[in-house]
Amino acid sequence: MSLSEELDNQVACAKLLALRESYEFEAKDAQGRDGNGAVPNALWASYSAMANSDGGYILLGAAENSDGSLKFTGIKNAGRVVDDFWNTINNPDAVSRNILHQGSVEVIECDDVNLVLIRVERASRKERPIYIGKNPFGNTYKRLNQGDYRCRRDEVSQMIADAVADARDSDILDDFTIDDIDGDSLRAFRNDFASSKPRHPYLTFDDKDLLEHLGGWRVDRKTQREGLTLAGLLMFGKWKSIREALPHYSIDYQDRTHLVDDQRWSDRVLPDGTWSGNLYDFYRRVYSKLVADLAVPFQMLEGAKRVDETDVHIAIREALINALVHADYSLTTGILIVKHPSGFIFRNPGVSRVPIDLVYQGGVSDCRNPSLQLMFQMVGGAEKAGSGFPKIRHAWERQHWRRPALSEKPSPEVVELELFTVGLYPEWVTSRLITLFGDRFKQLSPQERSILATAVYERRVSNQRLQLLLDLHPTDVTRLLSNLVDLGMLVRQRISRWYEYEVAQGDMARADPYQSQQQTLFPLLLGDEDVAASKPTGTRKPSKGSQGRKDSQGLARSQGRKDSQGHLASQRHATIEEVPRRIVAGFSTVTRKPIPTTILELCLEPKSTAELASILDLDPTYLRQRYTSRLIKTNHLEYTAAATSPDVQYRTTELGRQMLGLVED
C-alpha cells in the first residue's frame, strides 16, 4: 500500500515533515538547471544503496534546514521528472535492474507544492547487486548511517556469489578425502543422532554413505565427479584441513562473566590444536557453557517428571545453530559467540538472506548452508525452516526479558543477535525516570515509557534501534520521538546527518548534576544506591604512595580502598583500550563510573578532544558540548593551552582529582 493510499494528504505531509535523514529516508532538492525540476544524478547512488540494503524512501523537492528538518521546495514539473525517472531506471545502460513497480513512485501535494516520493524496496538475494551503469565493480552502493557508500570489490563479489548459489556449502572440494574427517567428531555425531532418532535408517550406513545422505559427500550427476563437500569438512573436518580450504576460518566463544580486574574473558573456546576445531565439536563444547548457569527454572510435567530443557535452553541452542548455518565462511570475519552478565551475543559473517523484519515474523527461510542445517536437524538441534527466530522471541517474552535484537552491520558484513537476560525496565531506570518526571512519566504510553527507559539504559537511542525494540514502522517511531522532544523529556542530538536522542536534563534544576560541585557527576543515569557508592570519599586519604598514582595508560589506580559496604574496590580501573566496550548507559559496566568520571581519569594525563572522542566512541562536537565544556565550567577540567590553540588538551584539575578521591577536600 502506497503512502498516499494509507493516509490522507494532510497526514502524509505531516509525516514527511517529521522524518529526518534517517537510515531509510533521503531528501533531494531536485530543482534542475531551469528550476522546474530534474532527476538528480545523485539519486541513482541512493537507489542502488537502498536496494542493496534495507530499502527506503527518496523524496524529491525537499531541502534540509540547518536543524535537519525538511523544507518543501517542490517540483514545478513533477510529471516530467517522473517520466524521466522511469525512462532512466528502465534503461539497462544506466541502471542494472528496475526492482520498482508503478505504485513505487507517486506525486504528493504538500504545502501547495508537488513532491515526488519514491519507495525503494530491498532487492532480493537473486537481484543483488543493483548498480549504476554496466559494471558492478565501482558502481555498487550500500547504505550506512553516514549515507551511501561505494562497495568494495570483495563486497560486490559476495553479492554475486549469493545471487547465483542457493547453497554455499554443497561445493565439492578438490583433493580432499574421507581422511580429512575427524573420526571422533563423526562418532559423536552418530551417538547424538541415535539418541535423537534411534530408528532412523541412516544409522545403518557406513561413514561415506552417511555423509552422502547428509550432504557432506556429493556425486555430481553430470560429470560423475565426487568428493567431500564444504559442509562435510566444516561439520566434521580436522582443523588443519579446514584451514587449508578456508584460510580465514574462525570460530570463537568468549565468556565475559565473572571477570576479575582487567580480564577480557573468564573462559574461551577457539581452535588451538588441542581439539578438532570443526563446527560440530564447537557446538557441543559451547552450548553446554552457554546454559551451564542459566537461571531459569526447569518445567514439571504430569507425574512430576522434570523437563531437562526449558524453552530458553532451546532458544539459546537455536541461536547458536542459526549463527553456524547462516554464516558465510568465505569472508574474513569469523563466528563470535559471547556470554556476558546481561545476556548473549551471536555474530556470524555475511548479510541476512531474508529481510530482518521477515525474520522477526518467521515462516520465511533462505539458509546459506542447507546441508549444515540438515545435519543439525538430525540430532534435534535445529527447527524447521523459518520457525527458529519466533521460537527465540516467544521464549524471551515468557521470561519478560528485553526483546531480542537482530541486526545487520555493514562493515564488516555480519548479522548479530543480542539476547538480553534482563527486563526492559531495571528498577534503577524506572526509579530515575520517576525522579526526573514524576507523574508525567506514569501518564505516558507504554511505548513512550519504553523509549525513555531505553534512552537511560543505553545512554542514547536512535530511530533504527527503537524499530527493533518496539517493532514499529520508522515513521511511527519518529512521531513518538518528536512527541517526547516536544514534552521536554528527550533531547535531540545531531550526529553527522542523523539524530540520536537522550533523556532531557538541563531544565531539571533539582536533578542537574552540574548545579553543585558537591554532587557526584552524572547521577541522572544512576540509581540512588549507585550515586551513593560513586561519591568521592573526600575525608579518606589514600594509602601512602598511592596518591595520584596512575597506570601506563594514565588512569587512576585504587590501592585497596573500600566502598561504603567495606568491599575492596578493584585494584585498577579499566584501561583505555577497554573503555569503549565497557561504557553502557553512560557509565562503565565494570566500575559503574559515569562518563564524566571516566573523562577525569583519562585526563590525569592530558588528552585532546580527538583522543577522548576516539576512546569513548563519541562525536567530538557532542563530546565538547555535552561533557568537556561543562567540566571546564565546573573547574573539574582545565585547558593545557589557550582554548583556540590547535594543540590544546584537557587536564584534570585538583578539584577533579578530589572528585576521583585522589586528594582530600
From TrEMBL:
InterPro entries cross-referenced by the UniProt entry: RecG_C_sf, Schlafen_AlbA_2_dom, Schlafen_AlbA_2_dom_sf, WH_DNA-bd_sf
A Pfam family annotated for this UniProt entry: HATPase_c_4
Annotated protein name in UniProt: Schlafen AlbA-2 domain-containing protein
Region (Disordered): 532-573
Domain of life: Bacteria
Boundaries of every Schlafen AlbA-2 domain copy: 22-150
PANTHER family in alphabetical order: GLPR-RELATED TRANSCRIPTIONAL REPRESSOR, SCHLAFEN ALBA-2 DOMAIN-CONTAINING PROTEIN
Originating species: Deinococcus phoenicis
